[in-house]
From TrEMBL, chain A:
Superkingdom of the source species: Bacteria
A single MF term (Gene Ontology): ATP binding
SUPFAM superfamilies: P-loop containing nucleoside triphosphate hydrolases
Coiled-coil intervals: none
InterPro entries referenced in this protein's UniProt entry, alphabetically: AAA+_ATPase, ABC_branched_ATPase_LivF/BraG, ABC_transporter-like_ATP-bd, ABC_transporter-like_CS, BCAA_Transport_ATP-bd_LivF, P-loop_NTPase
Pfam families xrefs: ABC_tran
Keyword Metal-binding: no
Ranges where the ABC transporter domain occurs: 7-239
Keyword ATP-binding on entry: yes
UniProt xrefs under CDD domains: ABC_TM1139_LivF_branched (cd03224)
Stated name of the protein: Branched-chain amino acid transport system ATP-binding protein
Family designation: Belongs to the ABC transporter superfamily.
From TrEMBL, chain B:
Subcellular location: Cell membrane
Keyword Transmembrane helix in annotation: yes
Name of the molecule in the record: Branched-chain amino acid transport system permease protein
High-affinity branched-chain amino acid transport system permease LivHM N-terminal domain sequence ranges: 16-115
Organism in which the protein naturally occurs: Neorhizobium huautlense
CDD domains: TM_PBP1_LivM_like
Segments traversing the membrane: 20-41, 53-74, 104-123, 135-155, 161-179, 186-208, 214-233, 240-257, 277-298, 331-354, 366-394, 415-431
Keywords: Cell membrane, Membrane, Transmembrane, Transmembrane helix
InterPro entries noted in UniProt: ABC_transp_permease (IPR001851), LivHM_N (IPR021807), LivM-like (IPR043428)
Amino acid sequence: MAGEPLLKVQGVETFYGNIRALSGVDVDVHQGEIVSLIGANGAGKSTLMMTICGSPQAKNGQVIFDGEDITRLPTHLIARRRIAQSPEGRRIFPRMTVLENLQMGANLDNLKYFKEDVEKVFAMFPRLKERQTQRGGTLSGGEQQMLSIGRALMARPKLLLLDEPSLGLAPLIVKGIFEAIRKLNKEEGLTVFLVEQNAFAALKLSDRAYVMVNGKVTMSGSGKELLANPEVRAAYLEGGRH
Amino acid sequence: MANGYQNVQEDVMAKAVKEGAVAGIIAFLMFLVFVGIETYQDINNQLVWRTRWGLLGVFVIVAAVGRFVTVGFIKPHLDKRKLAKAKTGILEVSEEKSFFHKHFLKIALVFLLCYPFLAMMIFGRQGSLKYVDNFGIQILIYVMLAWGLNIVVGLAGLLDLGYVAFYAVGAYSYALLSANFGFSFWLLLPMAGILAGFWGIILGFPVLRLRGDYLAIVTLAFGEIIRLVLINWTDVTRGTFGISGIAKASFFGIWSFDVGAANNFNKAWGLPSSSVYYKIFLFYVILALCMLTAYVTIRLRRMPIGRAWEALREDEIACRSLGINTVATKLTAFATGAMFGGFAGSFFAARQGFVSPESFVFLESAIILAIVVLGGMGSLTGIAIAAVVMVGGTELLREMEFLKHIFGPDFTPELYRMLLFGLAMVIVMLFKPRGFVGTREPTAFLRTRKAVSGSFTKEGHG
């Protein structure tokens, strides 16, 4: 890939109190790519995701987005740079309706595109359209995940961060959601940075991927390369093939 | 078949008798010390005790009979009705609302607008004083306070146990500024609101990082700090003596309600001299203030800031990752809620003509919060109903003179206020865990407006 990456994470170290969760992570995400980050539980994947969003902030190193250093920006200002996140555990607003949830994702100061964007999300996830007046908390897990992604898309993001979109979902629904991500990337050219436990599905979907162990990136390469890599196969794929 | 049915009924009766007896025993043990024994000071200022077996008996009998009737008659009846309904297949939820239900708000507003005149027609000029002042104004003050707190607790989800502090700030702002500088009510009303809102922000800053229980404790402390400052800063606030002789509100500066004034309202309109006209005027002022609160709340809920409050209540981290400035959002919630508390406070001072720290104890905060919770957090109608029931109910207790004939001349119904308050709360929470109005009106629609029933969500998540 030529040119400056859209998102450049450089030597980032993040601490929870005295505990070092990330020790010098470098990750690049280029315009139009799907990049995934795989690793075991507690490897620091979600921490990296949250560090990009500025909560917690990196102690050392830099996060550069679109040529701007966003390391020290507060979370809500990072979000306004159009980095949208579908956080781990979905975190939709359970007592608000589906439509209100989507509205929260939209740029509240400028609702010009609201209707158009809602229709787009509904076209992608027709289930949400059926349930638009229901409360978020009454949706099934898969629908909540769709809502979480839909809400993130309402911000018309330049970069979409997805934290474990397959968490706790049936394989068929996971397939549907990954299909939707692929479509977004192909048709709209949306850049996606994906954190996944479901390594097989993630690597198949991604252009490139990083493997994380104990707060460090230990391996990187194209999705296909990593799928073929014996070490990766042994650690993350054997028995995990869905 | 008939035999079997009889058996079942006998079983129910046996069970009812047993449970009634158990309830009686439990009531006896529980109230033995609290009700059965009373301490008092005798002539020599010594603390002695006497027994009140009669009253204790009444308590035990009420508990036993109540349980007996509930188990033996009410529950089987309800079960039967439910069963019959299930058999005929009619759902309890019907889409068609009755006329009264549909136009409830309009009817209520018209009633409120006519209320003082109705009271005057029915009870005469002096007789209506009680109804306009004790019931009307008193209830509306609590409605306004509860609606103000609703912004903080119901919408933004920040549990505030010290709301009365802002009420106090509003009341003292009016009392002090009017006594020392002679400003009028209509100038000080917005000023008291602004000052209270300012204190809301001051409270907001240190508690930005706190949520739930921790926030509740800090706000509780804040409420007490304000009260203690009012008690101890005697140079300014005159401490526990309070400030008396606070100027009355005037009719927008055109007419005064002071008896000696040249432009006295009653004289100008050729009315007989009576304080009831001032009370009626105050009634409309507080009604207007309530309407203002409701209007602002409804408008804000449809605006980005109101939506952000509700989202903040649900999930703070998600809010931040969606680009919402949670600091500003929390502070505006505190400030807006406090501002309405301040309005209510300055009105309270003008109405009483006297303020002292006594009026701003923790119990007031608790009552206001109870009204918000009972009404159904976030629902304006529900909160108004809860205020009528709770405040009106306690006022009504004062009127229950006939109880003295039953329980003897020593019986003062007001003393049982809190007991009944608690009882009412337990009952409401048992049968309507989401408060009187558990539905939440959605604020965004593409095509049609459709209320979301509270029955779809977890308890306490209305």
